[in-house]
Amino acid sequence: MRPGAKKSVVWEYFDKIEDRQVKCRVCKKILKFFGNTTNLQQHIKRIHPTLLTIPIDEPVTTDLEQTPSVINQEAGPSSASEPLYGSDDVHLPLPKPKRQKQMKLFGALNDDLKDSDIEKIDRALVTMITKDYQPLSIVEDQGFIEYSNLLQPKYKLPNRKKLSYELLPKMYTQEVSRLESLLSATDNVSVTTDIWTSDSNRSYVTVTCHFICEEEFFSKVLSTEEILGHHTGENISNILKEIFCRWNILHKITTIVSDNGPNIKCAIIEFLKKHHHPCVAHTLNLSVNDALKNNTEFQCILNKCKKIVGHFNHSALSCNKLKSVQQQMGFPVLKVKQDVTTRWNSTLLMLERLVTIKDALSITMTKIDKAPEFLDASEWGVIEESLKLLKPLEIMTTALSGEKYPTLSTVIPLLRGLQFSLNRMDTTTDICGNLKQSLLDTIARRLGILEYDKIISKAVFLDPRFKKLAFGNDTNANNAQKWITEELTAIVNENSNAEIQEHQHTSVSDDNKGDLDIWSHFDHKLAKAKSLSTPTSTVTVILRQYLEMPHFERKKNPMEFWKKYKSTFPELYYLAKKYLSIPATSVPSERVFSKSGQLTNLRRNRLSPKNLNQILFLNST
Fold this sequence. Notes:
Blueprint: E1 6-8, E2 14-18, E3 21-24, E4 30-32, H1 38-47, E5 59-61, E6 68-71, E7 90-93, H2 115-132, H3 142-151, H4 160-184, E8 189-197, E9 203-213, E10 216-226, H5 233-246, E11 253-258, H6 262-271, E12 276-278, H7 280-294, H8 296-313, H9 316-328, H10 344-356, H11 358-365, H12 377-400, H13 411-424, H14 430-447, H15 454-462, H16 474-513, H17 520-532, H18 535-548, H19 558-565, H20 570-580, H21 587-599, H22 609-619
Parallel strand pairs: 8-11, 11-12
Antiparallel strand pairs: 1-5, 2-3, 3-4, 6-7, 8-9, 9-10
Domain BED-type: 5-49
InterPro entries: HATC_C_dom, RNaseH-like_sf, Znf_BED, ZnF_BED_domain_contain, Znf_C2H2_sf
Subcellular location: Nucleus
């Protein structure tokens, strides 16, 4: 191009790489070039339409600082159709051409991104993928590439390989280091574990950890490992032990919470020699399922409900009719819900939905050929009454499944409250009367034993909201105090021995000072007075002071109490952190199983077990 010739603005975005090829600086795409910029202009308009605020065929000079210059309207194919200044040959000082405006996050197009900015965007990308369970291949999707280029043209998206082998492991390593620091500062950790099978028929075991650090609850995924071979107790225990040793928590584990599967219990109790705590939600689920199955008449009504739901789930025509009726009646458009046989709460949700859409459903059923048998008035009455019986159980399950507040200490008061609530309910039908009694019987049989559990009892006692008040009788409350006394005495005794050793060491140092230490006489008397105080008497005073304090408000976090009084009761504070951090259920591990389904569908089935573990871990951070 000769000096002074006009050059299209479009060349701001392209580089020549060969005689007949150019490369887009924004999206790196290779385009053919035949001597004019038409093809390049079309690319900018179609792919990067927001980059320019002036016509892309408006010319600019190659030398912006030249002053007098001749503007010739016949400068070539990239010139405008009219003279810029209305003359063929006019000598004027050239103003600087207007540069295009663009969206930017970290600077202008001609500036390179700083390494720190690239790292921020890389981290945000990995966070988006792990939090939303996006497939790693999203970075190769054309739509996402264009979206990313629009937000920040200077940022080059990593390919799947770099994401999988560099960026994801880098962030995983950083977050692992943070969690390791927290765990190293913690004396006691509880874990939950669950075994599940992916869509690709691979078996995994997930482990989560739970602890309190500086009065804050932590609930983190430790690892999700593939189980190779048979699910024997020994095989499972080897995997769990490797995870615990890797995180250096094997000696810190207070208890391991899981369902009642025989293999997982065998792994924990027989091979790992650790305390096993059954998942309370799982036990509650078994109790309700027992009660529902034992009530034959109620099962008949449930079967009719399932057939109605099944019909609508398999008939698009019927669904559309239901939708139309709801719209005509001014109701929200709601679909039926299918229950899962093994999950009683799904039965509750199914019945609740049927009651909600009852009126629209009744009209719709009259418009359907070969409709399933509908419910009569008495059956609707049974369903509505059964919901009142089942609702408290759902409330209890939800309360016990939390991760950011104490749950184990609420087991006994919730259980007693549930039994009290069910006993008070009046039923108007024989079917619901039988259901109520079945629920009370199965709950007492399966869950009543929990009040005798040592770990649960300690947690209840150390919760300043409950102390001894939540127990069903004085015997169980006194047992809890006895178990706390035993453990507290051991701690006080250990601390006392440490103080004696420290005093002996100090005494030797003081003796070496001779007569210079005028406080040594008093210090010796104080040490002697302390030695006369036994650990048992000290513990008695501590517990009496704790029990005489007013109960903390039920709706408050008990760690607020312990934060305030940890210097008053340091030994009790230590035990409170140990037992109040234990989850009542293995739901945290089961939640990982539920989330994993989003990761192992068709678009993500290429995920290696290693990447799956990293993503599930990062999702919990």
